[in-house]
Amino acid sequence: MAKLTPFEAEVVEKFKEGIELNKEKPGLGNVDIHKARELLKEAGAILLDVTLPDLVEGENAAEAGIPTAYYTPYPEFTDYIDELPEDKTTPIVVACRKAWFANRVKGLLEILGYKNVFVLGDDIKYLIEAHKAHTEG
Fold this sequence. Notes:
Layout: H1 6-23, E1 30-31, H2 33-42, E2 46-49, E3 69-71, E4 92-95, H3 100-111, E5 117-120, H4 124-135
Parallel strand pairs: 1-5, 2-3, 2-4, 4-5
């Protein structure tokens, strides 16, 4: 068995805390477009679009005008840490094209102590399309 340093043991404990929080959430914190829109509109969640720059089709979520959306591409995500809410109970929805990078960011946010982090299990382009369909015309 690997011997953990005190720092590594602390990270593992924070990871365990995140898992316990996720057990209380439907889908372990993975949400569909309907639930993501509900969190954004009714619970005041922020949206972190972590889509890789070369995979953005048209506009990212912030450019598409989704209120409280931030474009924080995964490769540069740590450059945007200062934009995260101070209140670590603020709901956060993390999204990208296939949820791969969103899940990584979710894990980091939970280790940082954020309690209400969710991942959009659908392609973010569909969330952007739903937003536009409900705000245009």
